[in-house]
Amino acid sequence: MLSIQNLSYHPPATPEAILCNISFNLCDRQLGLMVGPSGSGKSTLLEVLSGFVDWTGGHIYWHSQELTPDHLQQISGLVFQFPERHFCGSTILEELRLGHMDLDHERIDHALSAVGLGHLAPSTSPQSLSGGQQRRLALAVQLIRQPSVLLLDEPTAGLDWSMRKQIFSILQELKKDWTILVVTHEPEELSAMADQTWTIAHGKIA
Ligand SMILES: Nc1ncnc2c1ncn2[C@@H]1O[C@H](COP(=O)(O)OP(=O)(O)OP(=O)(O)O)[C@@H](O)[C@H]1O
């Protein structure tokens, strides 16, 4: 279980805290949904939970272990909003192997199959994929690291209805094996599959 207790983040440059006394628990193999309007602190929360930002108050636990930002970088897999903008590899294989040159084919095939891309040749260019396929590749890039917690920032932003449906059905499958936190300002269809939903506004959970 990921346990967030009274988490606050107040960088010196901001007059107000960006995150204020956030507390919630996300159980293993559950999908949690954090819903809030633009500017409410959703992306900042994911940056903290990915270990990119050092919080200024509170505690984060994975099961009974208290976590530092270094721990969080190890256990979390963050898929940014519009992740396709950050693709660097010229092939799917290169994209998946970035920073993990020793990954074997079995693990690569497993990650691609988990997101419904098992039929694609590893030599395919990420740029030639559809929008929905690119989002699924971005998921595979994180899954291949086998994170304990998968963090998704607006996973269906900018996709049309049929591509959003692809992502929903992948998430429905992934949540059988992975612990997932999704942040979004448009919960819509995601609400139906979420095990827990929280609302965030002005850095506080309502
Ligand atoms: N490094 C920073 N320094 C100062 N202010 C920041 C910083 N990062 C975020 N903020 C502010 O914190 C607030 C929350 O931003 P955040 O991006 O987390 O919101 P969000 O809910 O993800 O919004 P969106 O849905 O538009 O991405 C905003 O008011 C933003 O301007």
TrEMBL record:
Domain ABC transporter per the UniProt entry, residue ranges: 2-206
Gene Ontology annotations for the cellular component aspect, listed alphabetically: ATP-binding cassette (ABC) transporter complex
Keywords: ATP-binding, Nucleotide-binding, Transport
One Pfam family of this chain: ABC_tran
Name of the protein in its database record: ABC transporter ATP-binding protein
PROSITE patterns with a match to the protein in the record: ABC_TRANSPORTER_1 (PS00211), ABC_TRANSPORTER_2 (PS50893)
Cross-referenced SUPFAM superfamilies: P-loop containing nucleoside triphosphate hydrolases
Family the entry assigns: Belongs to the ABC transporter superfamily.
GO molecular function per UniProt: ATP binding; ATP hydrolysis activity; ATPase-coupled transmembrane transporter activity
Domain of life: Bacteria
Entry's transmembrane regions: none
PANTHER family: ENERGY-COUPLING FACTOR TRANSPORTER ATP-BINDING PROTEIN ECFA1 (PTHR43553:SF24), HEAVY METAL TRANSPORTER (PTHR43553)
Organism of this sequence: Pseudanabaena cinerea FACHB-1277
The UniProt record lists the keyword Protein biosynthesis: no
